[in-house]
Input
Amino acid sequence: MRVTRRGSNLTPRGQRFSRSRSACAALLLAATLVSGCGSIFGKSKAPGEVAAPDVIYGRADAMLDQQSYEAAAKQYEEVDVNHPYSQEARRAIVMAAYSYYKAGKYDDAVSAADRYLTLHPGTPESDLAQNIIGMSYYVQVLDPKRDQTNARKSLQAYQTLLQRYPESRYAAEAQNRARILRDLLAAGEMTVGRYYLRHNNYLAAINRFRVVVIEYQTTAQVEEALGRLTEAYVALGIIPEAQSAAAVLGYNYPDSKWYRNSFALLQKHGSKPQAHEGSWITKNWNGDGKPT
Output
């Protein structure tokens, strides 16, 4: 049955019914406004609307498997944001770091890994977080002629890993990369030192070669560094230091061409290799500095 509403013909009963409907409508409107306050004022979703931590973590794992690395990283971060005290939250942070690394977002990877190490030091994934920091800087390493900031940061990260987690499954790779980085950094110092030496800026050259001798003694660059020190000190007329450099060079690398050149240079100036106890070279050399 169809009912039409005509104001002039409404009975008192109809009027009461109309007022009742109006009151119900007002209540419904008020309820709607109250329930919508969260959206109106920008409040977060109700807890019931956020997925469980294992669900979010599972989504992130799926994205990682699909090589959607940046999206996976953001999903892992959602676990920590929405469920910071859940079992999944801790590992989600380090997995976010790994995902950012895979996405090529190296600054974000380092930031996430640093956050993990700050919040959860000594936990099972700590070595992974430390390794991610080392890797993130390592892939940004440039050739020896360029700024070596990333190489230094990477070396520091790998050295920290080896010191804190010597039994880590990442230790062997860290050790190998640390060796490569030391060679690279030493080569960078030598490049700049040679430049200064060519331009007769002997003190600046000595400072560069000094870094190699003190910090990178195990690298292939140290033979040349000792030979160049001999050359620079002879040019400055500081013969005792030149003798000490040649003595250490001859004792440790007797067949080196750098030793032959150093020996000949000192002989030309009426001298020969000789270790001096007061020399910084003798003091800082880990091995014996006696000449052959």
Q: What stands out?
A: The two ends are 120 Å apart (CA to CA).
